[in-house]
Amino acid sequence: MLAVRVTLVSRNVASLERVSADIVRNIKQQRLDMRGPIRMPTKNLAITTRKSPCGEGSKTWDRFEMRIHKRVIDMTTSPAGLRDITKVPVDEGVSIAVTIQQ
Question: What does DSSP assign to residue 24?
């Protein structure tokens, strides 16, 4: 049996939850040991810039923010079971990392 950690990262919470629910459903159908999805802290990337390109005029500022959401699922499975679990339709913008732990 393999100890596997699946890490999902996205800027869109709805698509991230949909993909993690599909993976959890596949794991439960195979009746495997599982923990998760564990919600990791959201990263907030913020940038503040001046609106005026030349620096003259009123001092007005733009604030931009990007939030990155992350979910972690831990499980134990066989190599054949891992192939079945990861055959999940993935929405655009969701990245998946599968780590096999020793």
Answer: H
